[in-house]
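Hi P.,

Sorry for the delay on this. The queue was packed all week, but I finally got your sequence through. Input first:
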Amino acid sequence: MKTSTDYRRPYRPLAVSLFNRAGRLARKLGFADDLDVGRMIGAARRRTGLSDFGDEWFLEPLQVLVRSVNAEARLTSLGARIQASRIVSALSIRLRAEDLLRRHPEILDLRLGKIVLIAGLQRTATTTLQRLIAADPGIRALRSWEALNPVPLGGERRGRPRRRMREAKRAARALGWLAPDFLAIHPIAWDEPEEDIFLLDVSFMSQTPEAAMHVPSYSKWLEAQDHTKPYEYMRTLLKILAWQRPGDRWVLKTPHHMEHLDVILDVLPDVCVVQTHRDPKKSIPSFLSMVAHGRGILSDHVDPEVIGTHWMRKTLRMMERSMNVRSTADGAAFVDVSYYDLLAEPVGEVRRVYGAAGLEFTWEAEDAARAVSSRSVKDRHGRHVYAASSFGLDDATIDASCEVYRRTYRIPDEAAMRPGPSAEDRSPPPVRDGGW
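Then the structure:
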């Protein structure tokens, strides 16, 4: 089955269509379902039985986000419910984290150790590389259920996260029901390695909202901010995770990091940044399709050309900011991985990353990487199809805009290469459950 390219008419299960129809009628009758910061804070406090957030600096980004969502995003009734639930969950995490740190202040003294941080552009095999490295039993990765709930829930004991695992399983099933095409583009499983952008979401300062919704005023505000505090809080959440399941070598991943490499080098000094590179004529339209399908979960108003304009500019910003940091930073902190080399020689590229990071590539790590690579299943959830023209772009425009980036990292023209497998059009390799 191929993914749909009719982005303006998102897929809807019948029950969702009926729910949204009822919501539209309620709006006409004057019952608004706008997000409300005060109500969501109250809901988080009732859910956790806690009231102390500690430093409340996060309220400003939350308020900016909520204003933008209410004014610009045009969410369906279900979309508004989902966003409210996500925000209440993030607020609840902050409340539980503050309570845990009050009871266990020694958590803040933990050392995270070496971090391999993958910060390539979207759809450049970042997930494939992350899962190859995360298969190493000696590497600590962020699992999906941890990303959704990094702090123990009420009633959970340290090292026994069963409630959080159950919640993650339900979330994965719900996403598959709501948006089967999205899973064909970016498969998600409750126990697989996940992006640490979820830890930045807890501070309401990440690219997630502008990927999931049309929120241009929030995006503009976000780009003008200092991102030190959200990264420091991400570091705190990583320490909370390390307190629950120790590890002194980590693999993290999210394209968002490309905008803030300078902050990362300050906040996470023992880090090796890995940048993956692929022909932007392929990676950019692929990501735009992913964004369009994601927005269709929350809104009936998906404009592919608006998405193309916004994310083309955003991608160029990510390229420029990352290259600027690298021009003055210690080159030893960075390593580049070609998408094409990774597909051709996955174990060899993983070995090279370990060498650049100063980590031993043990036989266990090599065997695990080989096993993961051999288990890749193409088109397990459907075949991802997309075209730049759907988003008001063409190959010549993308090439011209990305010329400096392509030249800097010697990125080939994918169309001129011999046909071969595609990491982003197949399911990322599964990994062994790290368990507890």
